[in-house]
Amino acid sequence: MNINDFVVRFANVNGTGSASANYLFTKAIFRMGVPVTPKNIFPSNIQGLPTWYEVRVSEKGYLGRREGIDLMVAVNPQSFAQDVASVKSGGYFLYDSTKKLAKEFLRDDINYIEIPLMEISNSNYSDARQRQLFKNIIYVGALCELLKIEFNVFEDLFAEQFKGKEKLIPLNVTALQLGMNYIKEHYPNTLNIKVERRDLLKSKILAEGNAACALGAVYGGATFAAWYPITPSTSVIDGYADYCKQFRIDKETGRKNYAIVQAEDELAAMGMVLGAMWNGARAFTSTSGPGLSLMNEFLGLAYFAEIPAVLIDVQRTGPSTGMPTRTQQSDVLEAAYASHGDTKHVLLFPSNPKECFDMTADAFDLAEHLQTPIIMLTDLDLGMNDHISEPYEWNDLRQYNRGKVLTAEGLDAAQQWGRYLDVDGDGIPYRTLPGTHPEKGSFFTRGSSHTEYAAYTESSDEYRKGMERLLKKWDTAKTLVPSSIVYPSKKKSDTGVIFFGTSTYSAEEAMDKLAEKNIHVDALRLRGFPFDKAFEEFVSSHKQIFVIEQNRDAQLKSLMMIELGTEASKLHSVLNFDGMPITADFIFNQIASSFKAQVSNT
Amino acid sequence: MTYIKPKFRHPDLQKNKLGYTIDYYEGSLSTLCAGCGHDSISGAIIRACFEANIEPHKVAKMSGIGCSSKTPAYFLSNSHGFNSVHGRMPSVATGANMANRDLIYFGVSGDGDTASIGMGQFVHVIRRNLNMVYLVMNNGCYGLTKGQDSATADCGSKNKSGNINLYEGIDLVSLGLELGAGFVAQSFSGDKGQLVPLIKAAMAHPGFALINVVSPCVTFNNNVGSTKSYDYIREHIEATSTFDFVPEMTEIKTDYSEGETKQIAMHDGSLIQLNKLTKDWDPTNRSSAMNAMLNAKENNEFLTGLIYINPESLETHELIQTSKTPLNQLSQSTLCPGNMALAEINADLR
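^ Those are the sequences you sent over. The predicted structure of the assembly is below.
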């Protein structure tokens, strides 16, 4: 019997309302106090194509994806062949038996649970849309009974979901009971998987990374968002709009303390962000790989002219259109060196919703402090899936760090002000905002080379001086980005493992698996770029390092070789790039087999 | 070689209401070719801002890339300027305007910057009716890269190398009208008398104000056969009216008795006065203006003056209902909902 340790996959047709039913299932397990992690595996399509929703339940709190389906809920005949094949031996295949299952889908080593979902729904509901929606609730009811989820958890969830539309509550409860009763009658025997109530989640929340970024932007004081719609980043701006409606409407006038402009393309979106931040408002954009490509032009200007900006890149599978509804960490190099000429950019790598919230808010402080773009690299997995996370927190004593901006009084007091003059020795000059002082502080922002006093120059010395100062600023950035988190092994190890972003869940699980096999390695989670001191020390103090990434070309490894001069022979890549979130088994197998090979070689 | 701009000014130079003399509105010395039309336009901008008592630090000069886009360095040195990326000035101006609605956004662009690489941003900034002046210094060619035809070069126009342009030229005024711009004007760099009041009125217009100024390129496109040369424009120019911009509280004097006169009240209380108005011309009627442009094109006329105005148009901030206080001046306490609100959000996510 596997208690609180299994994977359920739902196979649906997209556009049929299955998403909310499937979320209901996830939320019910969450309410049972058991760690749960859902993944949307959806097509780039509006209606009619196969879509999957995979839910891993893990008592141990492992939140990465796991291969091997224990229970398949198959509601879409289009994908039966694939769905039957993906059930692991001894697992269950629950399907809509309104139509007889073709012989070719029968396997000897799995169990079939037949429920005539369509038939039950049709005989209980007359409206076509209701028939479709309640069919989904009926299978959730079946799961409630099969997996022993507490019925009153669902009752509570319906009551919350339909607050204000109370007449929908009994309709949903009845549909749920239709599924439960069918199972009671036809499948009274227990399965070898089930859910048991625990208290493992405490104050944790279930949230999507994109919504967390949106909330972080509101808390970070962003008043302007410019964007161009692109999967999987769209819900960042949708979320920002929703939270702004909640928190940013002036009560007296009804006017908005924010503005959102849907730009004509990503070029314009980035330009708008620069214009706003140049003018002293906190602004951001969110996009994905193809948009980041277009934003390169402005990112170069922002780097060279030293204009703050915040860009959230929700990475998807590239190159080009790639697989727009699948995940990847493949914009690392693109983001790090976006634009022509010598440019490099500060990157942030959140790995859970709490960090999406924190880092987005922090990104505005960082951008204004460093007067440069801050690019946050999240991904589709983090952005568009629900994750268990620590709750959001805000320190009410915190003051925004608006960076070195001279006020009118400051300008009067300043003896000699130059827009690009490094007065403090940290590579960060003082800036002024338009409209500040009637007679002082005006300057001309330009992407052409400029002197410390912002005058146009073609002097090689002046140009070189400016570029070298930007490197000094880069050194300052190293001390300001979120520091790496080190996981020391229980036993001393000269092997290190490095990972970032959504590889974290599976990497942590893989470390446990390796330790069970007596393979002890130190680990480090990277959270920002340029590499901080802890990162550099970790790299230099280990003889071999496994770098776990979700891209083909080992982009973080390349970045380490470029920026730290780390020798290639020391770095071993663990690369998952098929568009699906990386699994612990994948990481474990690669690292374990490498160790095995090393042992057999010696 | 170093250029030093002479600092000497007449001691009795007239002061405006703010107490500034006109030199306070000047910029650094122009590095454009001698005789470039753009320098005359810079002069008109300086004159207009001086006469309209504009506080220079309340103006943000926005530009893209090109000869025209360099000019913001040559006027209003006490204003912040942003020389951005080729064709992308509208987006930067949009962001800047969203951040602070209280400044005057003075955009300067060229025909390459606007009608080719920046066409996408140009049309969209008009759609949104961003409150800004968008002045195109239009010479029909790419000066900085040595004279290639631009997208506004007329079909059949001959350039300095003797090549005849085969393609239709884009008429920015007609395009502006089509897209619903609330203030559309056309002028000639050689007609400062018309340009100065047009610029003043454009700054007073609460929305997108397009001024297309044909500004001959003396180096690459001032030859015989070019339709953007000084000679050609002077021969084909047709003023739709003479034009006066009358600031608030000023008594209106009419110097002209002949022809029709029309007054248009602006939101801030100022007045536009059109004298000697061409017959059958109504600059407050969009289709009349569009027809006039079409007819002028057929007759090889170059119409100048205020082509169209809609003083009632709603600018972006009014369309999306942003706060009257500029967004960049809202305090942290207004913007950040605080930890209590987070507790509620957390509860909803459990």
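Residues 258 and 314 of chain B are 35 Å apart (CA to CA). Chain B has one domain: 22-332.

Shout if you want it in another format.
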